[in-house]
Amino acid sequence: MPKKYYELTPDERLASLNLDEQAVQAWQDNQSATNAQIVENYISDFRVPMGVLKDIIVADRHVTVPMATEEPSVIAAANHGAKLLNQGGGVAVSLPERTALIGQLLFSGVAYDELAAFVARQQAAFFTVAQEAKPSIYRRGGGLLSVTARAVSATSVSVDFTIDTRDAMGANIVNTILEAEQALFADFQAQFVGAILSNYATAQCVTVTGRVPIASIGGRTVAKRLVQLNQFGHQDVYRATTENKGLFNGIGAVTLATGNDWRAVEAAGHAFASQNGRYQSLTTWTIAGDFLEGRLTMPISVGTVGGAISAMPQAQRALAIVAPQTADELRGIILAVGLAQNLAALKAIADGGIQKGHMKMHYRALALQVGARDDEIATLVTQLQAAEQVDAAVATNLLREMRK
Ligand code: NDP
Question: Which residues form the signal peptide (predicted)?
Fold first, then answer.
């Protein structure tokens, strides 16, 4: 019997794709036996550039932060933003006393009062079941914190389990506990719809704040314009979307580099940005005396163990650069990078336009695009910077001239 596709080896799958020899070789050069175990139908690794934010002060500690991103200007901008925030003393972090993930048991066609009364009566049993389902998380100091019924509509109810998953992101821990708790709801089996963690991690909302001397960002006019730009992010969804995208340039790059689930972090961030019924910027910038002050609050579910972190050695190596003692420390660091990234983007727009800062990195990407070799890139970038108009045709011509 022929093998099913998922049973093929990576090389057999590559052979099935009708690629030329060079492409097959290139993919083969990037294969990893470990990663082949992580996803189905693996063919090769897809490499993304990783750089570092060299120094950002977070909660009084100087930290170097790895960032994995395909976008050319992100890491340079993060370093610039961090430098500015460091001049104001760095980023302060404020966390809930216990960060936790929420899991949902969902019921439809049920009276809220009836289910809520049941949940109130079963409290002791919920805690016993959680401990039996995942004793190891209790040994680590985590576990179930609360169980509440929440009306979602006239006939649908979510029973929310708030669970401290310590240094793990916790999706599997929460789902394991939820599935065990489900058995207690035998009387509501007909109304039961499903059990799953929520990525809207409101029990782990973290706030980071920082300030920059106004003199360091180009003076009061730039500072005022920066604040006005940020206000647009609170009033206009078009601006808010772009501002939050810029924020996630930083947050996503650190989340990815540290082996965390960036989709979970982004989904929670965007949901939180809509908490007032209108999608808004996640950051707020104000002027206070001689300082520009910034604040970012959002839920962030990340871990320092488990999931892809335990599976991927590169994630462990990246985490070792940050060396967080706990997942809570990592939460603060990731959001601090987000604040720095946001500051750099706003400053660039407020102070002469985003393209000025972007261009050098963009030119490097353009040089690669038109086929410049590693030893030709610097010269071509210099020539592009001097050119009056730049596009792919101009870059191609300059490269051709250089090679004559
Ligand atoms: P894991 O189950 O892989 O890892 C958690 C385990 O790590 C714990 O159960 C614990 O096992 C061990 N551990 C070791 N040290 C610690 C510590 N200090 N604190 C806590 N746990 C520790 O991962 P998660 O439960 O974190 O799940 C994350 C993964 O789930 C991610 O890959 C994510 O992409 C995925 N996922 C995400 C979903 C979503 O976001 N909607 C849905 C489903 C999965 P022990 O105590 O036994 O040693």
Answer: none
358 a catalytic residue: yes
Q: Check whether 151 has a pLDDT greater than 80.
A: yes
Q: Which tens digit of pLDDT belongs to each residue from 180-231?
A: 999 999 999 999 999 999 999 999 999 999 999 999 999 999 999 999 999 9
Q: Phi and psi at residue 353, in whole multiples of 5°?
A: 100, 145
Ligand 1 atom closest to the CA of 175, numbered from 1: 43
- In total, the chain counts a number of residues equal to 404
The reply to whether 270 belongs to the active site is: no
> Can you say whether the dihedral through the CA atoms of 129, 130, 135, 139 is positive or negative?
negative
Place of tokens 């576990």: 143
Residue 326 Cα to ligand 1 midpoint, Å, equals 14
**What was the ipTM of the complex prediction?**
0.95
Tell how strand 192-198 and strand 101-108 pair up. Answer: antiparallel
Determine which residue's CA is closest to atom 48 belonging to ligand 1.
136
Catalogue the E-assigned strands of 283-345: 283-288, 291-299
pLDDT tens-digit readout, 95-124: 999 999 999 999 999 999 999 999 999 999
What is the Cα–Cα distance from 322 to 319, expressed in whole angstroms? 5
Q: Give the HSE-up count for residue 343: Cα atoms under 13 Å, Cβ half-sphere.
A: 36
Q: 246 C-alpha to center of ligand 1: Å?
A: 28
Give me the sign of the Cα torsion angle 73, 240, 230, 62. Answer: negative
Helices (H), 39-73: none
Residue owning tokens 């492409």 = 23
Q: Which residue, judged by its Cα, is nearest atom 45 of ligand 1?
A: 136
Q: Which residues of 211-222 are buried (b: 16+ CB within 10 A; e: fewer)?
A: bbebebbeeeeb
* 31 vs 178: CA distance, rounded Å: 37
Cα(133)–Cα(121) distance, rounded to whole angstroms? 20
Atom of ligand 1 lying closest to residue 165 CA: 20
Cβ of 251: how many Cβ atoms within 10 Å?
Answer: 28
Question: Quick check: helix, strand or coil at residue 111?
Answer: coil
Residue with tokens 């719809």: 193
Beta strand 156-164 with 61-68 is unpaired
